[in-house]
Amino acid sequence: MKLAVIDIGTNTCLLLIAESERPGEMKVISDTHSIARLGAGVDSSKLIQPESYERLQKILHSFKNILDESKVDYICATGTSVLRDAANYDEIVEKVKNEFDISIEILSGIDESKWSYQGAVCGLKSDELQGAITALDIGGGSTELSIGKNGKYVSGKSINIGAVRIKERFLSTINEASIKSAREFIRSELQKTFTDPLQAKRLIAVAGTPTALAAMKLQLKTFDAEKVNGLVLTTPDLIRLCEEVLSLSNQELTEKYPAIHPSRADILPAGAIILEEVITFLGLSEIHVSTYGLRYGIMIREFERSMKSSSNEWLVTRE
Asked: How many CB atoms lie within 10 A of CB 171?
């Protein structure tokens, strides 16, 4: 069985194609990353702009070519924070359906936290899944923080502190005052959302912010998922990298660290602040970086639904 998952987020649009013959194993055929910035301006206007949809449209055309060549059995497309927030979400969903014959399932914040967790822990072996694991997914519009035990999701929440949202609201100009305001807002949202202390001992972080910071730590010339996946970032690493990201212009950042996508550079300062504040809030000294995430969790969901069977441990191989 060969399936495709399209993850339409506030900043990125991702395509994962994988096949599986039995529960607990998947082979990745293709894992394609593109940046549409569909959520540009949505935090203030509550509307997805025509130019934002045009960027998504171009990406979906390129995805359609990949899908036609791959001959998948089924396509599952999901939308997250940007489509939850936008007043004209139904227009976007209808356009995608009419033009590409792709139906978009808009995930609730809770569902996003659940499947982000499953994606974060996929690829881990049974001995690595023992005990409590917390998963962090910093998106463009929202951030999901989830807790599971022995590979099973227990609970999670979605908070409106995504990297695009924080950048547009506080960090259009980066200075001491704007950084202070962003940090205070993030702390306030975390404290309001999690009134009881989170018993986090091990944290896996997915999505563009932690993977970009990991690429910086490794000083990669081009992004290498195999090198980034599983890398540990300590609190001193995060403090140093966050300070550097905040001190460099977008051009300086991408010239010094060419593995960072130019379209991500402008929101990386916001993402780095979110990540640092979450680590401080949880009282942790390190994070484990994962290149998996929501799209992998949704892929697991679709395989298990089709096979009518489940597995706590999903191992990932590549062609």
From this structure: 20
